[in-house]
Amino acid sequence: MDKITRIGVDLAKNVIQLHGVDSMERVVIRKAIARQKFPEWFANLQPCLIAMEACSAAHYWARKLRALGHEVRLIAPQFVAPYRKGGKHVKNDRLDAEAICEAAGRPHMRFVPVKTADQQNLLVVHRMRSGFVGQRTALVNRLRGELVEFGVFLPQGIDAFRAHFVGALENGATELNGVARTALLQGWDHIQALDRQIAWCDAQIAAHVKHDSNAQRAMTVIGIGALTASAAVATVGDARLFRNGRQFAAWLGNVPRQASSGGKTRLGRITKQGNTYLRTLLFQGARSAVMSAHRRNGRLSRWIVQLQARVGWYRTLVAVANKHSRILWAILARGERFDPAYVPTRPGTTGPSHLNRVAAPMIDPGVQT
Asked: What are the DSSP calls for 58-114, one per residue?
């Protein structure tokens, strides 16, 4: 067998497909192996480049293969699809492995950083918390909907629901019988159990932020709390992989979608690509910053107030989320603290250069459209 230089791996639960080429791009191996024999097969192989899609278990296998001396690269699935023969009309594991191998050989391909075990351990807490919050919201809506069927209308909001739910059940004037009341109380007990689970997750996240210097620096930005700071540190890892704040914002999907052609620039809504969870937290933080900007007198807060008066609430919200993304990159990549009073200097002039320039009240014009 010729020496294998690059292997594309299509991961699956039980059977994993391989596609390997040599230095002349000739196909050397095409085979499917069982998951149990996957580490053993690569342990007996000379070190080479291994490419996989960034999917379930990809980071785990990447760490295992790196420990065996191989170079591992993860590719976002949307970058692999154009290289699959047959396109979206023909898809199987063999073609996927071949497409992964081909995509990894492109000189300008972008890859996904491999997460460490510590990052994934922390993200487990975030994902469990997000799941508990979703379950609680669904259960509150279900209980409110059931009460509506008996003419009991509770006000919107989870706090208002907690304040009025038990009293609504104890009201003897409704048509609820004993069995229905007991069933609804079971749902109430479930909500309280979810509250305890969410509180436990919040405590673990707070403990992580307390001992992580990057997260503490991120929390100095108005609108970024412990939850967002912890999620950013766990998700991003090494922010220096991004060349600048704009790349980081684009990775999160906080930049406008382009449909430019013929020398004409056409910008639309934000792309919403990248990590949905972290982008959602940034938008929630931006909402808080915009709502409280009029109560502060900082340079950044004054810019938010002026921008809202000029372009409106929703565009301001997008702009602040974009700015927070860039500030967050500067904090994580450079290890510095955020200064809301920082005044940037123009290129070629002397002035303070120790703090991130993205803190200035300026924004990419495309985000304002």
From this structure: HHHHHHHHHHTT-EEEEE-HHHHGGGSTTGGGS--HHHHHHHHHHHHT-TT---BPP
Asked if residue 104 lies in contact with residue 8, where contact means CB atoms within 8 angstroms, the answer is: yes
- For the segment 134-175, what is each residue's pLDDT rounded down to a tens digit? 999 999 999 999 999 999 999 888 999 999 999 998 888 888
Residue 40 · residue 16 · CB < 8 Å: no
Supply the range of the domain harboring residue 339.
213-368
Q: What is the pTM of this model?
A: 0.86
With beta carbons less than 8 A apart as the criterion, state whether 292 and 275 touch. no
Shared domain check, 350 and 261: yes
Q: Within this chain, do residues 188 and 175 fall inside the same structural domain, yes or no? A: yes
**What is the SS3 assignment for 296?**
coil
User: Do 231 and 321 fall into the same domain?
Assistant: yes
Same domain, 266 and 364: yes
Taken in order 22, 28, 31, 33, the sign of the CA dihedral is negative
Q: What is the 3-state secondary structure (H, E, C) of 166-226?
A: HHHHHCCCCCCCHHHHHHHHHHHHHHHHHHHHHHHHHHHHHHHHHCCHHHHHHCCCCCCCH
If asked whether residues 242 and 343 sit together in one domain, one would say: yes
Residues 206 and 220 reside in one and the same domain: no
pLDDT tens-digit readout, 27-51: 999 999 999 999 999 999 999 999 9
Q: CA nearest 95: which of 103, 86, 104?
A: 86
Assess whether 222 and 289 both reside in one domain: yes
**Residues 292, 238 share a domain:** yes
